[in-house]
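Hi P.,

Sorry for the delay on this. The queue was packed all week, but I finally got your sequence through. Input first:
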Amino acid sequence: MGDTARALIGSPRTRPALLFALALALYLAPFAVGTEYRLFIATQMAAYVLVAIGLNLLNGYGGQVSLGHGALVAIGAYTVALAMVDHQWSFWPAALLAMVAAAAVGAVMALPAFRLSTWYFALITLGFAEVVGGLLTEWRELTHGFAGVVECHARQLRQHDRHNNGERRLQLRGFVVSVRTACRGNCQL
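Then the structure:
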């Protein structure tokens, strides 16, 4: 990155405007992609970026090697899919439930791993990942077995969200709160 770009990003005067522009671009991106395939690819990229950020926090800043990250992502993904398909929840409440479920399972996984270091920590997270993978494929009554959750269609998601204006207002409020939090009071909204 050049010196000009570093100065622009690092400047306290321009940071709130850049954060607002980035947040607005991310909020409007699903409406601008065009085809469903491009939206699917962009969604997959965003999910993988979030997983990479989590791994960077754990490996880069924490110095720990975790092999159980995929299991926590799978728990969150299955929670969203099962809440939407089996219980007809909307996406946003299902996503919040998935965050809580993955955090709770991660906390339970962390209890025995607190006192371990380096390779022992990696081994216990690998064991956890194997147990979760086995449960997700063998517990057919809950997770639908090897086939997974296949009844969730994009058309159903769009029809459900199209008629829910209260959820759109909640989403917009969350966007504004996120931008204000990111700006930390330095920008005028």
